[in-house]
Amino acid sequence: MARSPFSPAFWRSPLRGPWFTSVLGVVLLGGITVLFVTGLVSYAAYNPDLSPVNDQTPDKGILGFYLFAWPTHPVWLYRLTQGVHVTLGITLIPVLLAKLWSVVPRLFTLPPARSVAHALERISLLLLVGGGLFEFTTGVLNVQLDYVFPGSFYPLHFYGAWVFFTAFVVHAALKVPAAVRNLRRAQEAGEARETGELVSPSPAEPTVSRRGALGLVGGASLLLFGTTAGQSFDGPLRETAVLAPHGGPEPGSGPGGFQINKTAGYAGISAAETSEEAWRLVVTGRTGTVRLSRADLLRLPLHSSALPIACVEGWATSDQWWRGVRLRDLAELVGHGDPSDVLVESLQRHGAFRRAALRANQVADPRSLLALQVNGEDLTPDHGYPARVIVPAAPGVLNTKWVARMAFGEL
Amino acid sequence: MRRRPAIGSPFTVLLLVCSFALTGYVGVRLLVGDWFGVSLWFVGAALLHDLVLLPLYTVADRAVVTVFQAAGHRDLVGYARVPAALSGLLLLVWFPLISGQMADRDRSVTGLCGDRFLARWLLITAVLFGGSALLLVLRLRRAAKQRPPAVH
Q1: What's a Pfam family this protein contains (chain A) (predicted)?
Q2: Which residue from A96, A109, A94 is spatially nearest to A198, judged by alpha carbons?
Q3: Into how many domains does chain B fold?
């Protein structure tokens, strides 16, 4: 038996071959394209071009070429796109690992480069494999709040995605024709013995068929999907997400028992500053400044909307029944009859999104509220008492909690 | 006379140079902060996977096959391999949660009980191996029934 991994005979698994690699490659071609697109969509959902407070990658240059005003219809839009992004990413991990396993003999190819093109392609493959693992690792760590990576998640995951996807497109352009050819040939030839670079010249006796191995990969994906997807729903479905960060039982019971992104304790919000006597909402606009107590707000026309909370980490709640003052009514109060953009500030002193900007279309939507109550009761401290923003289809962090100040037309 | 190095497909070369230019444009933005740390993570992720994780699980799999082979049951290796692979994968993906290192942060940030994941992973592992054992017993019993009865 060959002792060196640089010898083709060192690699003895009878599973490796063009068919196995091509099947996994085609799955990743579709899957990673969806991940990239939903990732770009998530960046657009933050409205980063509206205000610097919404933008974690201000030096993006042309990479923001596609940005657009994020809509408020349908209300579950971000819940869907980001749920797909995170859940699909986790589901694809076994496929990615199997794909890398299937081509690992290529890493040890001798001579290291047959031509200039081959040398460049191998550099690109380092960016592909390193970039892919970097993206999956940072994503998986971020949803578990384990911020061990070297920098802020947003720029690392955003710029890393562009490096990865660039190498991915090149790889697809060079390999998809061969993959399709391999699959066609396999369909015609049936289970006939394969030939090609990846096929071991001295295969060991098989312990599992290629279809069996593919079944294991698919089963592993299904297991990850089944233990994660439920965190995008409330109730019994969330209970099925047994290993997901926001799976299992809700944090509490009753009207305010649904999922919390950051608790009041973690955000450093004290009961003293949110009390009826201390707290005042400051609204500024064209006609000056208005200070409103919570009782003042409750005397304004109140409206209800059923809206979900959807987090960049991929979890979401089902629709909650919010009640409060329409954002466009608050805008009108300070002279913005034609709703304008607004800068919302929280009582929170730290944290990237203690200030967030909303676009005019979000302010104008009649379902956008400064909510005072949820599911028929006053907001709990963890859900933003005395008042919080809730906007249809917006990422969770733009639904500012513990609102202290709203500045219309100030962006 | 020295042989000139081969160029290879001109299309491939052009495509790759184009991609490297775009990667350079993105790369300077990616590396603007902790350039060393980010490069280390990029290259380290590939090396750690190819030279540590993959050989580790390959050796572990070989060991399982060897044990079954020694017992004369090479055909039954899947009954150990499948639950072990699934359980190991869950541990790999959710290690920060399962190891409990995030438990305190989890509780203060989300209000959820953070140390619930180790117990759940152990239970899933028990179900996977238990289910596999059950399937194995059923298969062995079916095989025993199909065998002609011994003649006395």
Answers
A1: Oxidored_molyb
A2: A109
A3: 2
Structural tokens at position A317:
């709640």
Cα distance between residue B83 and residue B128, in whole Å: 5
Among chain B residues, the shortest Cα distance to A116 is held by B7
Residue B17 belongs to some domain of the structure? no
| pLDDT tens for each residue of B102-142 | 887 778 888 887 778 999 999 999 999 999 999 999 999 99
Does residue B62 sit in the same domain as residue B113?
no
Residues 6 or more apart in contact with residue B117 via CB below 8 angstroms = A243, B94, B97, B98, B100
Asked if residue A263 lies in contact with residue A332, where contact means CB atoms within 8 angstroms, the answer is no
Do B92 and B51 lie in one domain? The reply is: no
CA angle B28, B31, B37 (to 5 degrees): 160
Residue B100: pLDDT band (50, 70, 90) is confident
The CA-based dihedral angle spanning residues A128, A129, A134, A136, taken in that order and rounded to the nearest 10 degrees:
100
**End-of-domain residue from the set B50, B74, B98:** B74
CB contact under 8 A, B19 and A60: no
Alpha helices in chain B (DSSP H): 10-30, 35-48, 54-70, 78-93, 95-98, 103-110, 117-146
* Neighbour count for residue A3 (Cβ, 10 Å): 8
- Distance (Å) from the alpha carbon of A239 to chain B's nearest alpha carbon: 12
Centre a 10 Å sphere on the Cβ of residue A15 and count the other Cβ atoms it contains: 23
Q: Report which of A394, A390, A396 is spatially closest to residue A305, judged by C-alpha positions.
A: A390
Cβ distance B8 to A129 less than 8 Å, yes or no, reads: no
- Chain A hits for B82, CB-CB cut-off 8 Å, are 216, 219
CB contact under 8 A, A207 and B49: no
**Tens of pLDDT, residues A74-107:** 999 999 999 999 999 999 999 999 999 999 999 9
Q: Which CATH number fits domain A264-408: 3.30.70.580, 3.90.420.10, 3.40.430.10, 3.40.50.720?
A: 3.90.420.10
| CB of B65 less than 8 A from some CB of A | yes
Q: Are residues B101 and B133 in the same domain?
A: yes
Q: Which of A107, A148, A162 to mutate to test the interface with B (most CBs of B within 10 A)?
A: A162
Closest residue in chain A to residue B66, using alpha carbons only? A207
